[in-house]
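Box S2. Input/output pair 1.
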Amino acid sequence: MKKILIIEDDKEIAELERDYLTINGFECDIEGWGSTGLNAALTGGYDLFIIDIMLPGMDGFEIVSRIREKLRTPVILLSAKSEDIDKIRGLGLGADDYMTKPFSPNELVARAKAHIARYEALTQPAAHRISVRSLEIDPDARTVMINGKNVTMTAKEFDLLCFLASNPNRAFSKEHLFDRIWGMDAVGDVSTVAVHIQRIREKLSVSGEKFIDTVWGVGYKFTK
């Protein structure tokens, strides 16, 4: 669960933000004082900061400046002022976004999700190619090759093969694979896993090698 720190001295606004974010799956903490908010930001391991500009003890501009000395965590600045000078100053200090009060709580949630996803994409280590005998998988390019020749895969076939190949010699149940690749809220059932495994095996069979084994009573594993 992603953690968000709200630094806001207006209790009603802070609790409204927290409630909407919590409903959408975030864990939220609230700090109402600038200096304590900064301390929490630097030590709490948060994934996003939502900071009001006008705060007692230390204003939002100073907090953003101090955060940027140590962290690249996304920051959304909030202000009751709509003047461009405040927006320019906040973004110049390192804030990622700026919202003027009053704002839609749903828009705040959408922006929070977008900034966290963007930050994770930028900081995620580049995936390494997986090479096993005649098989080569490129997670970044989402390509599969056998003996240097491209093998066409659907999105789910690729995701399933890549996941198994990234965890070689480990058996996974159909239920686990369905939840991991299709998602717990997906429409369908675990039987689709077996169908996709069969299609992957058929496409890789041109190599004359076997890559995915059935583990009876458990599920499947990728054999190196």
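Box S3. Input/output pair 2.
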Amino acid sequence: MLTRMSLSIPSQPLTFWRRGQPVTLPAVPADRPLLQVLREDLHCTGTKEGCGEGDCGACTVVLGEAVAGRLALKAVNACIKMAHAVHGQAVFTVEDLAAPDGALHPVQEALVQCHGSQCGFCTPGFVMSLYALYETTGGGQGVTRESAQAALSGNLCRCTGYRPILDAAERMGELPCPDASRLDEAAVLRGLRTLGPAPVDGPYQRPTTLEALLKARAAHPGAQVIAGTTDVGLWITKLHKQYPQLLDVTGAAELRRVETYPHHIAIGAGVSLTDAYAALVAERPQLGSFARRFAGLPVRNAGTLGGNVANGSPIGDSMPLLIALGASVVLMRWDAKRRAIAHRELLLEDLYSGYRQNVMRADELLCWVKVPRPTASEFLRVDKVSKRFEDDISAVCLAVRLHIEHGVVREARIGAGGVAATPARARQTEAALRGQPWNADTVMAAAAVLRAEFQPISDMRASADYRRAVLGNLLRRLWLEHRGVKGLRLEAADLEALS
């Protein structure tokens, strides 16, 4: 159960929009997950409690907020979403879809017609992920099997019922929607404008400007900094940690943007992983498959690239890629003496000082990730090896960026994950490639250096020997792909045809 003792954690009011009216709870602990509020306080037990770690999707709900005058909807995991993070937003649960007279929403009706529910436990989560897809595609129009699979990447069915659920996804756009079940975007936006701001000085703070955020950090250097809580949420639900003071970076308007400059793009710390990877893929389309494998969609919708980098997990997938791209981070703090924002910039790999440790001052925040734009001669590949193809944590992640001119490797940058206490740069392997002819002998020699460069551990995901072997093999596969060899990747295969 997610329930835990929170008597010592300070509380504050929480208000959000649901079912056409504001919902206000007078005293919600700062670190209380949204799932607890829905099930225990509001008795919305249709939202199920499954894994408690954002993995199974049974707790999926849909959040709506005003963005540039429109209602932006996204599916998230309620089990690891802090309740106060939805202050001022609209919350949709599975109970909200059917009309008052019992007429089903097209998502629900399609699942009934296609026999998409077996034991039924996971069904509410699938319904809500499909509901987000339905609304964001203008009533389920143009939904393909591929787009449905992407939308459902964060939902697991233990009865192996995926085929009928995908059938339902394709059918839902053909079914009529009862008038009472239609989403009235204008009404929701009007409702959101009536909700008051979150408390400024409460135990859960989500400042709306960068300056206010940095001042809050200076005033509360011991507060737990959060973004999407895709990691901190697990510390709460699995490790039973309690946080009397939380500082959420995702409210600062300046940090919710992706900015494009002549030589780099700057991704704010409040930008979701979904939007951050969309920006990276727009610059480098070859990253599309890797982006889809970064967790499930609800996790990408909640988590942020800045949070992933600042957390510094050695098995985080973003950092090897960013290291290979030569990305840097901008750290900021409030300088009280100068009454201004101070900042410094360093290469991403220089941020880390040890396992989940970094060089940030107590009053600093990671505010921007700067990624160089691609060049014409760039060759980039990033590989993730995990037990499960989708929605799984890497055993090994390797990203390689090369500049090859006239058959010679002029420049190489390599990032690796899962092989050291921190995300790592493979400097020795880079040196083994740099200035050498791009041929089989160079690649074999570099692969041997790469295997020897790190001393990975054996754990539940892979043995040390396996990790070392995979590192070298991934470099060899990159060489074969550069030569034009096809059929080397699982995602390129038509699995349904093979079955």
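Caption for Box S3: Residues 464-482 form the longest helix (19 residues). Residues 107 and 172 are 5 Å apart (CA to CA).
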